[in-house]
Amino acid sequence: MDIKVTGKLAVAGVIAGLGVATIAASTATAQDLSGKTVEFVIPFAESGGSAAWANFFAPLLSKHLAGNPTVVVRYRPGAGSTEGANWFQEQTAADGSIVFGTSGSTQFPYLLGDPRVRYEYKDWKVVLSSGTGGVVYLPPELGERFDGDFDELKDEAFLYGSQGATTLDLVPLLAFKLLGLQVDPVFGVEGRGDGRLMFERGEANIDYQTSSAYLKSVVPLVEQKLAVPAFTFGALDAEGNIVRDPTFPDLPSFKEVCEATEGCETSGVGWDAWKAFFVSGFAAQKLVYLPGTASQEVVDMYSKAFSDMIAEPDFATRSEETLGVYPQGVGKAALIAHDQATTVSPEAKKYVLDWLAEDYGITMQ
Q1: Under CATH, domain 10-132+281-346 is a member of which superfamily?
Q2: CATH 3.40.190.150 location in the chain
Q3: Distant-in-sequence, close-in-space partners of 339: CB < 8 Å, separation ≥ 6
Q4: Could you give the CA distance from residue 341 to residue 168 in angstroms, rounded to a whole number?
Q5: Cβ distance 340 to 279 under 8 Å?
Q6: Which residues form the signal peptide (predicted)?
Q7: HEC profile for 65-130?
Q8: Using one digit for the tens of pLDDT, what is the confidence trace for 143-175?
Q9: Helices 49-64/296-310 angle, 10° precision
Q10: Do 287 and 40 form a contact (C-beta atoms < 8 A)?
């Protein structure tokens, strides 16, 4: 089976070459969820990109899981998503009735040694990986002054609604630093959807949304001339280089904007740190896990369900409209994405920890 995606993404190439077909072709397992309710839990509020992602997959899981169970999305926001992840760490359901969807906002505290983290990714069993992208946008009055670089906006006082510097917001906040922007984050919003609402109310003048939330909630603002897109974070090509996001090919990548902005460098430890967390937070961002207690039969059942739905003739079109053009990984591809998303080099980690301490007074103690 080939997974059809647009764009030459590195992870997509991995997926195509790792024998996902063996999952789709396997015989049905003995597992059966007839009459049961499956809880698809995400550690976020119901207004952001993770909610759109989970709600896209929930009915497809119901259709393809053995026994066609009812699949409902449950929301457990709090503490930058660590509260929900800590809860999932304690779950022992072995029958497949609970799955958990993580995001970079869950991975980052884990990578940085956040003391709130009581979960261990290595204990969980991954069954799906999803890449995504992100778009930074401005209000019209500032968008008019953006011409591919931020040189004329470096003295502007920006306000940004943030879930926290160690959440997925680490990627835009570090990008803003590399660009030399004066951005004052307003910490404490529960989800990126709340950050967007701050932007709509005029309480923030710079924002970003993941691709799914941008397509659903920000494109209408752009069409009404209430928002102007500035750049995407980009995507990875087959050689691991940052290129334009295939979902938004007309928008420059952060690398392009950085190269055009005076003082922003696309080499060195700062750039390497940004790229490492971009990969963890976007290129291999969203992952679906079963508890560590799940049997191999249950893992196989979920892997087959995801593989079967990806094989549907209209999946590429439906997923593009809802989530953007990004790869979905099953089996070995999901395992590789899991490893990428939960690993960071010591140098990149140190750079980010030093920046967090210096700029925000945040230390991992």
Answers
A1: Bordetella uptake gene, domain 1 (3.40.190.150)
A2: 10-132+281-346
A3: none
A4: 12
A5: yes
A6: 1-30
A7: CCCCCEEEEEECCCHHHHHHHHHHHCCCCCCCCEEEEECHHHHHHHHHCCCCCCCCHHHCEEEEEE
A8: 999 999 999 999 999 999 998 898 889 999 999
A9: 100
A10: no
Residue 173 · residue 358 · CB < 8 Å: no
pTM for this one?
0.77
Alpha-carbon distance of 345 to 365, in angstroms, equals: 20
Q: Helix 104-112 and helix 82-89: axis angle, to 10°?
A: 80
CA distance 162 to 360: 13
| Secondary structure in 3-state letters for 202-236 | CCCCCEEEEHHHHHHHHHHHHHCCCCEEEEECCEE
Q: Residues, the chain, total? A: 365
Distance between CA atoms of residues 304 and 300, nearest Å: 6
At residue 51, the 3 state secondary structure works out as: helix
Query: The domain at 135-235+242-263 falls in which architecture?
Result: 3-Layer(aba) Sandwich (3.40)
Q: Are 44 and 293 in contact (CB under 8 A)?
A: no
Position 263, amino acid? G
CA 324/CA 335 separation, integer angstroms: 22
The three-point CA angle 209-113-49 to 5° equals 15
What amino acid occupies position 145? R
Segments of the chain assigned to CATH 3.40.190.10: 135-235+242-263
Q: For residue range 7-22, what is the model confidence (pLDDT) as tens digits?
A: 334 444 443 334 444 4
CB-count exposure of residue 86 (10 Å: 0-12, 13-18, 19+) = middle
Any residues with CB less than 8 A from the CB of 129 and at least 6 apart, and which?
A: 11, 284, 286, 287, 288, 327, 328, 329, 333, 334, 336, 337, 338, 341
Answer whether 209's CB lies under 8 Å from 135's CB.
yes
Give tens-digit pLDDT for 75-110: 999 988 999 999 999 999 999 999 999 998 899 999
